[in-house]
Amino acid sequence: MSFSGKYQMESHDNFESFMEAVGLPDELIQEGKDVKSISEIEETGDHFKVTVTTGTKILTNSFTIGQETELESPTGEKVNSVVMREGNKLTAILNGIEYVTELTDANTLVNTMTLSGMSYKWTSKRM
Prior knowledge:
Elements: E1 5-13, H1 15-21, H2 26-32, E2 38-44, E3 47-54, E4 57-64, E5 68-72, E6 78-82, E7 84-86, E8 89-94, E9 97-105, E10 108-115, E11 118-126
Antiparallel strand pairs: 1-2, 1-11, 2-3, 3-4, 5-6, 7-8, 8-9, 9-10, 10-11
Family: Belongs to the calycin superfamily. Fatty-acid binding protein (FABP) family.
Protein name: Cytosolic fatty-acid binding proteins domain-containing protein
GO molecular function: lipid binding
């Protein structure tokens, strides 16, 4: 299955607690907790461009599977990491946070961020 497409967040679990734990300022947590983000993924072979729009904040990361690249974390930090792919799952580690993006079926994208046993999970549907 191809990740390419636009996805809108449908639901999320543990946003506020997780974002506090990673150091996101309270004002950004309050702004982001009720916003339904939109993710746009462009997949060309092993190259990906992922753009996530949450309210007025736009985060764009481009990477090639298996190659080290600079990625921007949700807190705005630039971090070198390697994104790996296993079937319909993309994984990366940024500043100790494990990121997993999984295409669970043709229209459902499940993202999970985990830090020290605490996770934030959100589910998006293809638009």
